[in-house]
Amino acid sequence: MTWKSIRIFSFGGPEVLELVEYSTLPEPGMGEVRIKVLAAGTGFTDSFIRRGRYPDFKGPLPFTPGYELVGVVEKIGDGVTLPCEGELVADLCVVGGYSQYAIRPTRFLVKLPEGLDPAKAVCIPLAYLTAFQMLTRICHLPKGATILVIGASGSVGTAFLDLARHLGLKAIGTCSAKNIPAVERFGATAVNYHAGDFVTTVRTLTAGRNGGAGVDAAFDAIGGSHFAQSFACLAPGGMLVGYGSQTMAVGGEGMLSAALGLARLKLWGAMPWLFGARHAAWFSITERRLAYPDQFKADMATLFGLLRDGAIDPVVIDRLPLSAARDVHMRIDAGGLGGKIVLLPWAGL
Ligand SMILES: NC(=O)c1ccc[n+]([C@@H]2O[C@H](COP(=O)([O-])OP(=O)(O)OC[C@H]3O[C@@H](n4cnc5c(N)ncnc54)[C@H](OP(=O)(O)O)[C@@H]3O)[C@@H](O)[C@H]2O)c1
User: Fold this and answer.
1) Distance 78 CA to ligand 1 centre (A)
2) Which atom from ligand 1 is nearest to the alpha carbon of 336?
3) Does ligand 1 have an atom closer than 6 angstroms to the CB of 179?
4) For the chain, which terminal residue's Cβ has fewer other Cβ atoms within 10 angstroms, N or C?
5) Same domain, 111 and 138
6) Boundaries of domain holding 30
7) Are residues 202 and 266 in the same domain?
8) Count of H helices and E strands in the chain?
9) Which pLDDT score, from 0 to 100, does residue 349 have?
10) Using only C-alpha atoms, what is the Rg of the chain?
11) What is the value of pTM for the model shown?
């Protein structure tokens, strides 16, 4: 039986994504399962990896991209007791999702409740879990607190807004003019960061609050010098969480600027008394999963429960076959998608 997968043989632009056909099915080894992939999430982190600039994955080449997947366990390898064959699972695989089949270790697989749409469910492992853990594990925000989401129209950004609505938080989100509706549909206040200094706008929007102008928490994946702008939006006692270096990923700033941004986060985190009790932290979903595997599984289960109950609603803007992977990456690189494009590996055959 033949099957297909996207492969990257050298780092570069969207043109390095190649659709490859195989003639034999991959077999799971000890402690592994073969998953028939029903949905693969796409997003900026895949582009980051494709460019060869992602710090946590540098190969080896060739490899199959795709940070997250949802699929059915088709065959279990020796030593596997759970999950069982036929179960629907999700995986934050970092690479390997853009494929009809994936061989995966069982350690971090999470079983899905019955009846979920795989395309919506695949928005959970990276975008929603990242936002959820920053909102609930890193910051401990009471209902009514105000947050600032930088890049609010993106996959993680819209997950923040959706979860903020669910958790009873007020959200302000920065975005481009054309994405204002994508931010406002969650009841958030949109700030077009191209139209002027967003720090002034955020401080004006929050003037007159008890405790001083500014937000209680800000979330920023732009990185580098941008962290200082987000930090300037905090109210006294507020917290900035940095979780990306997007300008470095696209070559807008160098490694030095990204490193300086991280150093600033460390300084603000270590000496909050110097900054009006404002503080800061770095977040990485993969580092946190390794440090707190039980929280990872518990939080994934919570989010899948919220999805099943209709309490959250991920924005899937397109469902496309594997053969569209290059076009999808061109769209991701152009920016401002306003949601997630999901690849359906068995569609369009
Ligand atoms: N640390 C972690 O655990 C973790 C986990 C997941 C993702 N990430 C990182 O999070 C970032 C976002 O990922 P994603 O999948 O949500 O990407 P995405 O869907 O491409 O969204 C990114 C958004 O950023 C906005 N943007 C671009 N430049 C901006 C700027 N200078 N100021 C403000 N907004 C800007 C764009 O919106 P407009 O076009 O509307 O401006 C775009 O929609 C990536 O850097 C990714 O690597 C980190």
Assistant:
1) 40
2) 39
3) yes
4) N
5) no
6) 3-123+315-343
7) yes
8) 12, 15
9) 65
10) 20
11) 0.96
Here the tokens at position 281 are 């932290």
Is residue 270 domain-shared with residue 141, that is, in the same domain? Answer: yes
Which three-class secondary structure state does DSSP give residue 44?
Answer: helix
User: Whose alpha carbon is nearest atom 46 of ligand 1?
Assistant: 45
**324 and 197 co-located in one domain:** no
Indicate the residue type of 180. I
- Both 173 and 140 in one domain: the answer is yes
Query: What does the pLDDT look like over 259-318, one tens digit per residue?
Result: 899 999 999 999 989 888 999 999 999 999 999 999 999 999 999 999 999 999 999 999
Shortest-distance Cα residue to atom 32 of ligand 1: 151
β pairing state of 110-111 and 88-91: antiparallel
Is-contact 218 241, C-beta < 8 A? yes
Which protein residue has the closest C-alpha to ligand 1 atom 35?
Answer: 151
Q: Could you identify the atom of ligand 1 that is nearest to the CA of residue 339?
A: 19
How many Cα atoms occupy the beta-carbon half-sphere of 19 within 13 Å? 13
Shortest-distance Cα residue to atom 19 of ligand 1: 154
96 lines ligand 1 (CB under 6 A): no
